[in-house]
């Protein structure tokens, strides 16, 4: 059994330096206008998360993780070399790589991510939910169907979650960048489709009014930049038929105080947290204690 990095709840490598004072955190703060845009539209894009050398280091680690026989892969919660059933539409998708590789472990404690996450959660302390990798190979990369993240997460309550999607390649329309449906976070909770199935499966669950408001916006970003979205934001991404790969990682978090809504296993192999008990412990570390490192406004 490989070393399980979920036992370590602090930075262990050289990718990031932890800010020591409130002033050190200031350079990572979003503007009031950015927070207002997120609250109105349900997303906020083009937020720098990584320098090029950090992206390069993570992509080196990713090469190992894409090998299903790589030592430590038994620590994944989920591992799909192709979540699609179509070999001509490949979508690599996994959860749990923070437990295996030091770089992907330490991105949970990236100050640029945590400051933005705390602000977008209403200036609350940030606790980890789970990570994801989404990789679409060149020429035959598959889709991620239109969906809302929280439709898969109702096993945790209340809904005070946040997603950050970070590009490890330049994300373009041609290679399958993320699309958002602005203001769809106001539609309420919808039924969930098959994630790597029919791109348009969600349309069966929409009202005629919602279909009229269904105006996708592509989020093209350079590698190292991230986009944040609300747990009810409708989003998805089309296939990649370009000659370039489209690799990305996702960090999913919630405000501290979120509880389990199930007596079943929340993630594969993780000890049960009984319903109505606080989400915490080895697999759900507190990433940012707002009271300790940042004075409340």
UniProtKB/TrEMBL annotation:
Its cofactor is Fe(2+). The keyword Electron transport does not apply. The keyword Nucleotidyltransferase does not apply. GO terms for molecular function: dioxygenase activity. InterPro entries: Phytyl_CoA_dOase-like (IPR008775). Transmembrane segments: none annotated. Pfam families: PhyH. Keywords: Dioxygenase, Oxidoreductase. This is Phytanoyl-CoA dioxygenase family protein. It comes from Negadavirga shengliensis. The lineage of its organism: Bacteria, Pseudomonadati, Bacteroidota, Cytophagia, Cytophagales.
């Amino acid at each position: 059994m490989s070393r399980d990095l979920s036992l370590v709840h602090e930075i262990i490598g050289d990718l990031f330096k932890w800010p020591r004072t409130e002033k050190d955190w200031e350079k990572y703060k979003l503007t009031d206008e950015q927070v207002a845009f997120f609250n109105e539209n349900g997303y906020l894009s083009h937020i720098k998360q990584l320098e090029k050398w950090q992206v390069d280091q993570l992509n080196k680690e990713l090469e190992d993780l894409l090998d299903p026989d790589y030592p430590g892969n038994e620590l994944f919660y989920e591992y799909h070399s192709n979540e699609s059933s179509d070999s001509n539409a490949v979508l690599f998708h996994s959860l749990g790589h923070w437990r295996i590789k030091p770089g992907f472990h330490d991105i949970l404690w990236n100050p640029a991510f945590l400051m933005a996450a705390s602000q977008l959660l209403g200036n609350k302390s940030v606790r980890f939910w789970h990570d994801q990798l989404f990789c679409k190979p060149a020429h035959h990369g598959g889709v991620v169907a239109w969906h809302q993240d929280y439709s898969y997460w109702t096993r945790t309550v209340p809904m005070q979650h946040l997603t950050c999607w970070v590009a490890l390649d330049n994300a373009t329309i041609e290679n399958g960048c993320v699309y958002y449906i602005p203001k769809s976070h106001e539609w309420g909770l919808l039924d969930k489709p098959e994630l790597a199935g029919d791109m348009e499966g969600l349309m069966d669950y929409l009202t005629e009014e919602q279909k009229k408001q269904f105006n996708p916006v592509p989020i093209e970003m350079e590698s190292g930049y991230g986009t944040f979205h609300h747990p009810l934001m409708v989003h998805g991404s089309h296939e990649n038929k370009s000659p370039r790969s489209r690799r990305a990682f996702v960090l999913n978090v919630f405000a501290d105080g979120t509880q389990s809504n199930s007596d079943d296993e929340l993630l594969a192999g993780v000890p049960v947290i009984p319903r109505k008990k606080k989400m915490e412990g080895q697999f759900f570390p507190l990433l940012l204690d707002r009271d300790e490192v940042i004075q409340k406004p």
